[in-house]
């Protein structure tokens, strides 16, 4: 039985600051996860060599792998800190911020690029007015079965972190698997389908679905087991169909 937990944290005091490492020794407890480790550090922010320091900054909310905010690199892999159990991790446990997003402080990163990409593809169902819309649109059970796994996306950004095509966070860079999968989800909805062509058009621009190189790292990193490669393939078919129709119509 482990009596202590050794945690190494890659820290950075500001977006412009230089990164550095600090190591902590914590008392082991049953069912510890990475978030508990970070909370223990916050209660007693003293490094392994006895130096007084500051609590580690990180994002966290639900603690149930639902909100997606606690994504970080745990021993070099993109994971959710709340579900990364200490007993299943090799020590020392190395915690780093995700490399594809700008660092705000320590393990907290700016995911604005991902959220702007969701806006770009209109990843929502538009409903105008507050009047009675009557009965909702019907969806076949087969469609529901395909849509439900896609709806489990928590916008954690793990798929972007592991994708070799995602190299930056500027418009024109590859939007990533999560955004493409959300386009498929909302295009399947009877109401959302009204704006399907707009979403597909957005993904036919630079950084869209054509930039996927089929590395398939996204599927392995997704904490919700979303069939991301299926979504990419389906959206790619929709894009080709729309492009050909546009060419024929002129």
How would you explain this protein's 3D organization?
This protein is an alpha+beta fold and 250 residues long. The protein has 2 domains: 4-109, Roll (Ubiquitin-like (UB roll)); 112-127 and 138-249, Fumarate Reductase Iron-sulfur Protein, Chain B, domain 2, CATH 1.10.1060.10. The protein has 8 helices and 7 strands, in the order ββαβββββααααααα. The protein has helices at 34-43, 112-120, 141-151, 158-162, 177-188, 196-203, 217-221, 228-249, and strands spanning 4-11, 20-27, 71-74, 77-80, 93-96, 103-105, 108-109. The chain has a 5-stranded mixed β-sheet with strand order 2-1-5-3-4. It has a two-stranded antiparallel ribbon with strand order 6-7. A hairpin with an 8-residue loop joins strand 1 and strand 2. The longest helix has 22 residues, at 228-249. It is elongated, with a radius of gyration of 21 Å. The N and C termini lie far apart (70 Å). The mean pLDDT is 93.
Question: Which descriptors would you attach to this protein?
Answer:
two-stranded antiparallel ribbon; elongated; 5-stranded mixed sheet; 2 domains; alpha+beta; Fumarate Reductase Iron-sulfur Protein, Chain B, domain 2; 250 residues; single chain; Ubiquitin-like (UB roll); 8 helices
Q: How many strands appear in the DSSP assignment?
A: 7
Main sheet makeup: 5 strands, mixed
Broad CATH class of the largest domain: Mainly Alpha
Q: What order do the SSEs take from the amino end to the carboxyl end, as H and E? A: EEHEEEEEHHHHHHH
Domains counted in the coordinates: how many?
2
CATH topology of the largest domain: Fumarate Reductase Iron-sulfur Protein, Chain B, domain 2
Task: Report strand %.
Answer: 5-15%
Any idea what the CATH architecture of the largest domain is? Answer: Orthogonal Bundle
- Overall spatial form: elongated
The N- to C-terminal Cα distance equals 70 Å
Mean pLDDT metric: 93
User: Which superfamily, in CATH terms, is the homologous superfamily of the largest domain?
Assistant: Alpha-helical ferredoxin
Helix content: 25-40%
Residue ranges: pLDDT <50 for 5 or more in a row? none
| Class inferred from helices and paired strands | alpha+beta
Report strand order across the widest sheet: 2-1-5-3-4
């Amino acid at each position: 039985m482990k009596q202590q937990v050794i945690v190494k944290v890659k820290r950075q005091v500001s977006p412009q600051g230089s990164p550095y490492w600090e190591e902590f020794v914590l008392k082991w407890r049953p069912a510890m996860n990475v978030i508990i480790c970070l909370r223990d550090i916050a209660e007693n922010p003293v490094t392994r060599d006895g130096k007084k320091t500051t609590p580690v900054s990180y994002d966290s909310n639900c603690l149930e792998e639902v909100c997606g905010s606690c994504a970080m690199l745990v021993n070099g892999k993109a994971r959710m800190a709340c579900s990364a159990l200490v007993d299943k991790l090799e020590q020392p446990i190395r915690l780093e911020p995700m490399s594809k997003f700008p660092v705000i402080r320590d393990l907290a990163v700016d995911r604005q690029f991902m959220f702007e990409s969701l806006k770009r593809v209109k990843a929502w169902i538009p409903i105008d007015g507050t009047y009675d819309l009557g009965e909702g649109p019907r969806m076949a059970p087969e469609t529901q079965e395909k849509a439900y796994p896609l709806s489990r996306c928590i916008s954690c950004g793990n798929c972007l972190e592991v994708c070799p095509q995602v190299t930056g966070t500027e418009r024109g860079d590859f939007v990533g698997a999560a955004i493409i999968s959300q386009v498929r989800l909302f295009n399947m909805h009877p109401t959302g389908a009204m704006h399907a062509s707009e979403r597909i058009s957005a993904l036919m621009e630079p950084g869209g679905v054509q930039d996927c190189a089929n590395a398939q790292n996204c599927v392995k990193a997704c904490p919700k087991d979303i069939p991301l490669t299926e979504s990419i393939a389906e959206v790619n078919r929709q894009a080709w169909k729309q492009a050909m129709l546009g060419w024929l119509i002129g």
